[in-house]
Amino acid sequence: MGTSITFKRPDGKDASGYLANAGRGNAPGVVVIQEWWGLSDQIKGLCDRFALAGFDALAPDLYKGKVVPYHDTDSANKEMNSLDFMDATTQTVRGATQYLSRNGAKVGLTGFCLGGAVTIIGATKIPELAAGVVFYGIPPEQAAKPADVKIPLQAHFANKDDWCTPELVDGFEKAMKAAGKSLELFRYDAEHAFVNEQRQAVHDREAAELAWGRATEFFGKHLG
Fold this sequence. Notes:
8-stranded mixed beta sheet; globular; EC 3.1.1.45; carboxymethylenebutenolidase activity; AB_hydrolase_fold; Dienelactone_hydrolase-like; hydrolase
């Protein structure tokens, strides 16, 4: 349904990604950020779903063509740890946001796992954004302080998550509230990465569909 494109970062360098356009011409935009596996077919499929829901969706390729197989967590961890999160967010992700907003459309940001952390960093660093939806990812506070978040956020977390733990989520929620920031937070009795239907060991269809409905409704409200 979508297509691979090249777009410009603010620094003038080229970045690539997967773009799926909505049926109507003046659709709002959603930038979709990958898990630590890379720009997988599953993330492209989510872009296609956003397009069907009425949004132009662009997933920038933060790993520049590298996609890690699901069983290889060591390689995924290595790729994630070698990613310059600030450059990825303020240049590649911001470039994708600017690409979608070029005709005056409002743009939101969403991401999963690694992409959830990038979404929160983007909420503090990318001025063109209008809203963000976070899926089971929180960056270290030195990368993005809740007090610096500039857009309404919705967040989805799993109670059985050993990476983005319930304690970490509680701390994030508390800090956002203390800073007076707009946050809708949902917890699911599910595993980390429960939205990923290609990983049967963790996928929870009921939780995934509930979260998807909430996310598209939230973007519809804030992006128009």
